[in-house]
């Protein structure tokens, strides 16, 4: 694969998820990427590699813009040894070792995870024969909702409320009584504790997260209440709960979390897009009509 050419996005808004989605789509035009149906597997790998190489940088630059600063120069970024360190150098011009460890752990734990919403979106778009930029951009868009990728941003307000009241049991009980959702618990695949959450929790402890104690108190209260609430259905801690705690320890603002999640999924999306191209089949889901029965013209 050729080295990715220098690319400096212009007109970033500071809204990292939106900037990432638009810039990845824009690159398809800048680089004149061809449609998947018109290129071979080797060219597909090259296109995906070129896009992937830019995505963390786009997010880091957007985060700097959001804070009213110029992103660091290439010379500064070149001092970093890992992706997480280079990311922080581009964003802040410096890289606290604890922050590097936190982000590196988060990205590893949230990498490829099967056919989730964003990955499925990437495959659907790839199945149409669109270019790699379109498929990647669509996948980023699927992360903009709070139910996939954005949930960590909604964990922190819960922790703040528990810290203010000092009553995690009462807080959880109130949510359940109102039929609300406790963010960071339950998973569509895991019917036990999400194994990634243990790693994230341990590293949050190691880097000295200021929220770890209240997070552990809320977790204990939530798990106890959920066992009573649904005794025949396991609802356990998922990856997003301690992701929020760990990213907060690295001073990552909540609104940046969907884009951070996208950075972790780039490799997995790329593999799925290539695999979908190789199938050569279009996704065409069927639906079931549930509307009114046939009516006469006079009735209409």
Provide an overview of this structure.
- The chain has 300 residues and is an all-alpha fold.
- It folds into two domains: 16-144 and 254-279, Citrate Synthase, domain 1 (Orthogonal Bundle); 152-249, Cytochrome p450-Terp, domain 2, CATH 1.10.230.
- The protein has 13 helices and no strands.
- It has helices at residues 16-30, 41-66, 74-77, 83-92, 97-109, 117-127, 132-141, 152-165, 168-177, 195-206, 212-229, 239-249, 257-279.
- α2 (41-66) runs antiparallel to α13 (257-279) and α10 packs parallel to α12.
- The longest helix has 26 residues, at 41-66.
- The N and C termini lie far apart (61 Å).
- The model has no long low-confidence stretch (mean pLDDT 92).
Biggest sheet features: none
What is the string of SSEs from the N terminus onward?
HHHHHHHHHHHHH
Number of helices: 13
Given this structure, which CATH class of the largest domain is correct? Answer: Mainly Alpha
Mean pLDDT: 92
Q: Work out the strand percent.
A: under 5%
**Percent helix among the residues?**
55-70%
In the CATH hierarchy, the architecture of the largest domain is Orthogonal Bundle
């Amino acid at each position: 694969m050729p080295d990715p050419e220098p690319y400096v996005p212009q007109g970033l808004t500071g809204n990292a998820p939106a900037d990432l989605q638009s810039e990845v789509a824009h690159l398809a035009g800048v680089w004149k990427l061809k449609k998947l149906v018109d290129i071979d597997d080797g060219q597909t790998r090259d296109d995906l590699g070129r896009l992937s190489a830019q995505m963390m940088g786009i997010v880091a630059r957007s985060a700097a813009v959001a804070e009213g600063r110029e992103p660091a120069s290439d010379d500064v970024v070149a001092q970093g040894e890992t992706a997480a360190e280079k990311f922080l150098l581009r964003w802040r011009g410096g890289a606290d070792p604890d922050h590097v460890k936190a982000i590196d752990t988060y990205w590893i734990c949230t990498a490829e995870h099967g056919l989730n919403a964003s990955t499925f979106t990437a495959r659907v778009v790839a199945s149409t024969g669109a270019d790699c930029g379109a498929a990647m951009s669509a996948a980023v868009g699927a992360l903009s909702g709070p139910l996939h990728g954005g949930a960590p941003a909604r964990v922190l307000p819960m922790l703040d409320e528990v810290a203010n009241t000092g009553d995690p049991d009462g807080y959880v009980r109130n949510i359940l009584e109102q039929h609300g959702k406790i963010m960071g618990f339950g998973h569509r695949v895991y019917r036990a504790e999400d194994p990634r959450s243990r790693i994230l929790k341990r590293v949050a402890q190691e880097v000295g997260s200021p929220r770890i104690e209240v997070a552990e108190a809320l977790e204990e209260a939530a798990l106890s209440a959920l066992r009573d609430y649904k005794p025949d259905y396991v609802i356990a801690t998922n990856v997003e709960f301690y992701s929020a705690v760990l990213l907060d320890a690295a001073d990552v603002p909540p609104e940046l979390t969907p884009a951070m999640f996208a950075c972790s999924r780039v490799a997995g999306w790329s593999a799925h897009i290539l695999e979908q191209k190789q199938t050569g089949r279009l996704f065409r889901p069927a639906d079931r009509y549930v509307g009114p029965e046939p009516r006469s013209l006079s009735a209409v």
